[in-house]
Write a structure and sequence with these properties.
CATH class of the domain at 2-83 and 152-230 in chain A: Alpha Beta
Number of domains of chain B: 1
Number of helices of chain A: 10
Radius of gyration of chain A: 18 Å
Number of strands of chain B: 4
Largest interface: A-B, 25 and 18 residues
Number of strands of chain A: 10
CATH architecture of chain B: Orthogonal Bundle
CATH architecture of the domain at 2-83 and 152-230 in chain A: 3-Layer(aba) Sandwich
Helix content of chain B: over 70%
Strand content of chain A: 25-35%
Oligomer: heterodimer
Order of helices and strands of chain B: HHHHEEEHHHHEHHH
Largest sheet of chain A: 6 strands, mixed
Distance between the termini of chain B: 42 Å
Structural class of chain B: mainly alpha
Radius of gyration of chain B: 19 Å
CATH topology of chain B: ABC transporter involved in vitamin B12 uptake, BtuC
CATH superfamily of the domain at 2-83 and 152-230 in chain A: P-loop containing nucleotide triphosphate hydrolases
Strand order of the largest sheet of chain A: 6-7-8-3-9-10
Number of helices of chain B: 11
């Protein structure tokens, strides 16, 4: 589904991503973990097309998409739920979903938006309210719903559990599993390493812009360095 | 008698406000959506008026035609303002966005738009000199006398037209796909891109609307005051900025209120204190408002991006 080959991202003198190669297969949940500043968000932004890599290739559905604009990538089935939700707070819940469906055919938009309201009753009851009045959990549902109406083949989530209560985090990861069971591939960047490894099939550990470790979640969970650094377990 | 005269001035002020409304909305669109104080707006206004006059007086360039009918000349003038506005978009906003990633973070587009203002003004000065030119239309002395008051019919139609255009614009921003995309760009351009909105394709729509609003406003001025000049933009530009701030940055309906308030203050000030007092009254009013209500009458944010 997604192949990244030796990608490099630079912000002026800062070398944020150094020769990163990762992949996400069909109907796979892949997680990227790492500490602050490891380059996780830069990686997702490079895949989404909002940051230009200085080197390397990105293939999506076996097509090279390096030169594809961010909006064209959305149209081809790649969506990103950004860190901090970034919902449009001056607009209503419905308008946020309509924006998510911006690249869809006019005839499909209504059904797509209604399918989100059918799925999330909390959002349906707040349909005409400003998104700013939603709770943190509802805002995250809206951000995911907004990505779903774009009919993604691969959904990327950047720190989705940030700022949510443990109960809501549990619900959120259940939802991610549901999306996966519906055939959407998932690439999830998460600081909650335990939960990410519990949900995903495979994972990568980023450190200072490079891939430090990769493997199945059981391989990663068994790694002593990872356990000590990210799972809080003393070895 | 005194009250009748004051009431007549109020009517005149509201009619004058119709000129400011469209230009104030043009300013508020640029600020509200792009966070860009577009100084070229007064030049686009002047450009539409002068092109309209030139075509109705001389005809097309290079002797391609004789003098053109006033309405068609103004129509071409409006289109020229739209094209000039797109030129400004290409060489100020888009260029700096491509070069630096975000045009609004830099003062350069603002300064470049000021450069375009002067270039347009001096090009017109070179072509036609600095004289005020008469613009003839069939609408002279078309007044409506009601209970002793004189209401100019073209001015009344202009006021209604200005409000209708702003209402249509408001509908576009609130109800349509393009409008939603523009509001998304206004709030968070990065998140808008992640929704699949092609910011580079949508932003020119703002500049087309700006050119259109300036062109319509200049046409309304030419029809009502029967004159145009290379300096007509300077006068309306300062008043429209004041109208935008009074109404609230980024608020389309605020720009209508601001335009009418500025028109009223100007005519009443001239009536009571003489012609030189108009600018002092308008800008004192603005400064007072900024002190007591920095968001303007209908604005949400004291500074920066507005909500429609």
């Amino acid at each position: 589904m997604l192949e990244i080959e030796n990608i490099n991202v630079r912000y002026g003198p800062i070398h944020a991503l150094k020769n990163i190669s990762i992949s996400v297969g069909e109907s796979e949940i892949v997680t990227v973990v790492g500490s602050n500043g490891a380059g996780k968000s830069s990686l997702l932004r490079a895949i989404a097309g909002t940051v230009k890599p200085s080197k390397g290739n990105i293939f999506f559905k076996e097509k090279k998409i390096n030169s594809l604009s961010a909006p064209s990538r959305v149209k081809s089935g790649l969506t990103l739920v950004p860190e901090g939700r970034q919902i449009f707070v001056s607009m209503t819940v419905e308008e946020n979903l309509l924006l998510g469906a911006h690249s869809q055919n006019r005839s499909q938009v209504k059904n797509l938006v209604e399918s989100i309201f059918d799925r999330f009753s909390n959002l349906a009851s707040r349909r005409y309210q400003l998104a700013s009045v939603l709770s943190g959990g509802e805002q995250q549902m809206l951000a995911i719903g907004r990505a779903m109406v774009a009919k993604p083949k691969l959904m990327m989530l950047d720190e989705p559990s940030l700022g949510l209560s443990p109960i809501l985090v549990g619900q959120l990861f259940e939802l991610i599993k549901e999306l996966h069971s519906e055939g959407i591939s998932i690439l999830i960047v998460e600081q909650n390493t335990k939960l990410a490894l519990k949900t995903a099939h495979r994972g990568y550990v980023l450190e200072l812009g490079s891939v430090r470790l990769e493997g199945t979640v059981s391989q990663l969970a068994a790694d002593k360095i990872l356990a000590e650094a990210y799972l809080g377990e003393s070895v | 008698m005194f009250f009748e005269q004051v009431l007549q001035q109020i009517i005149n002020g509201l009619m004058l406000g119709s000129i400011y409304i469209s230009v104030a909305v043009a300013f508020t669109l640029a600020i509200g959506i792009l966070n860009f104080l577009n100084f070229t707006i007064p030049a686009l206004y002047m450009f539409a008026g002068m092109v309209g006059w030139s075509l109705s007086h001389y005809g097309l360039p290079f002797g391609l035609s004789g003098p053109i009918k006033w309405w068609f000349a103004l129509f071409i003038g409006i289109n020229c303002a739209i094209l000039a506005s797109l030129l400004v978009e290409r060489f100020t906003y888009r260029y700096f966005k491509m070069k630096h990633g975000d045009a609004t973070e830099h003062a350069i587009p603002l300064v470049s738009s000021l450069g375009f203002l002067l270039i347009f003004e001096y090009l017109i000065l070179i072509a036609h000199g600095s004289d005020t030119r008469g613009f003839s239309t069939p609408f002279t002395n078309l007044d409506w006398r009601v209970a002793g008051f004189i209401i100019s019919i073209p001015q009344l139609i202009s006021l209604i037209l200005s409000i209708l255009i702003v209402a249509a614009l408001s509908y576009l921003l609130i109800r349509t796909k393009v409008g939603r995309a523009l509001r998304a760009i206004a709030e968070n351009p990065d998140a808008a891109t992640l929704m699949g909105i092609d910011v580079d394709r949508i932003v020119p729509v703002v500049f087309i609307l700006i050119g259109f609003l300036c062109g319509v406003s200049a046409s309304i001025f030419a029809i009502n005051y029967h004159e145009v000049s290379p300096y007509m933009g300077d006068h309306v530009g300062t008043k429209a900025i004041a109208a935008m701030v009074i109404g609230g940055l980024g608020s389309v309906w605020g720009a209508i209120a601001g335009g009418l308030i500025v028109g009223l203050s100007e005519t009443l000030s001239i009536y009571f204190f003489g012609a030189s007092s108009a600018q002092i009254t308008v800008w004192s009013l603005l400064l007072l408002l900024v002190v007591f209500k920095p968001t303007g009458l209908f604005g949400h944010n004291a500074i920066g991006k507005g909500k429609f």
